[in-house]
Amino acid sequence: MRPVMDEARVMMILEARVAPEYWDVLEQGYRDRAAQGFPAELIDIFLIQAVTEPAVWRIVSVWSSQDALDAYRRSVYPLSGPAIFRAAGADPAVSIFRIIA
Known about the structure:
- The chain is α+β, with helices and mostly antiparallel strands.
- The longest helix is centred in the N-terminal third of the chain and has 13 residues, at 23-35.
- It has one domain: Alpha-Beta Plaits, CATH 3.30.70.
- A 4-stranded antiparallel β-sheet has the order 2-3-1-4.
- It has helices at 23-35, 66-75, 80-87, and strands spanning 10-17, 42-49, 56-63, 93-98.
């Protein structure tokens, strides 16, 4: 079992259905953004594709705190995650979760 964290980390999930003809665009957009580097407060980030519904894609990011995520979202426009999906013809839903353990 993982220990309880001192500071509440958060997870942001962007999710959208992406048409197969845009999968390469989505993957390349993610790779291009990753090559630019991320802020230190971003602990981890993934581009994932659903196994049972391959048109469903997510960008999942883990942040050191809600404050860090909020500061990043205020400092960058347009946000790169939604822009990556939009370039692939999709408009992502955004969900934010507090990581408990």
